[in-house]
User: Fold this.
Amino acid sequence: MKVIEPGQDGNIAALRSSFHVHFLFCGGTMDNHYFDHVYELALKAYDENEVPIAAVIVKDGKILASAYNHKEKDQCCTSHAEILAIEEASHLLHNWRLEDCDIYISLDPCPMCASAIKQARIQHVYSALNNSDSSNIELVEKIFEKDHTNPSVYFQSNLDSERFKQLLNSFFEKQRNS
Ligand SMILES: [Zn+2]
Assistant:
């Protein structure tokens, strides 16, 4: 059976279905319970007045690294959960290549984090909540396509949306009222 490479067809619908085909063929083993850990971390961010976004990197069925958004605390625009988790995982493995790793995230990545995920060669990205910004989705899907140096990244979104959406909404409500 022919596997469609993302990017062979400029049509977005085809692109989405090719991602789906890839996901089935490569047998990604998404495990929903990792979103519980992501949620606990996002709550920590919430309590520290950071935008409640978190990430967990899984290797061989175990959590290797985890982080939550630290942008305010660090006063650093790159202190996103995904970047911090990638740094920790690379440090632990003494390897920038995270080829056997998957990442679970609370919200679709921004383009900066999507690029880092791809550069790290993480294979699967499982996102709890999709980003309502359609231009972000298009950019991220483009970044996750195969290119001349990196393989494609298998991306699934909106896998555990409700509680993460509520958490984000209540955070922004809290910010407005403070
Ligand atoms: Zn980011």
Summary: Residues 80, 82, 109-110, 112-113 surround zinc ion (CB under 6 Å).
